[in-house]
């Protein structure tokens, strides 16, 4: 499935929304991920939650973003949480992760 960042992380979403996506799709393409700063913390938090769910469920993620993962977030408030997201995004590119079965 292909989704735009603003469709996934713009409007309010519950974690269950992301769990349902993970249940139904083994691969998700996410396009147009902008650089996120402190003014985007609501969307940044949703993106963090989305990646957490996809990581746990072994969903394969292909992203198109305005920056490399470690340069996507320049805010302060979610810096610690976003570092975990960066780490997960990098691990999600590994052969071991890509070969792991989907846990939808």
From TrEMBL:
Keywords on record: ATP-binding, Cell cycle, Cell division, Nucleotide-binding
Keyword Chloroplast: no
A Pfam family this chain is assigned to: AFG1_ATPase
Gene3D superfamilies, alphabetized: P-loop containing nucleotide triphosphate hydrolases (3.40.50.300)
Record InterPro entries: ATPase_AFG1-like, P-loop_NTPase
GO cellular component: cytoplasm
GO molecular function, a single term: ATP hydrolysis activity
A biological process from GO: cell division
Entry keyword annotation includes S-adenosyl-L-methionine: no
Entry protein name: Cell division protein ZapE
Gene: zapE
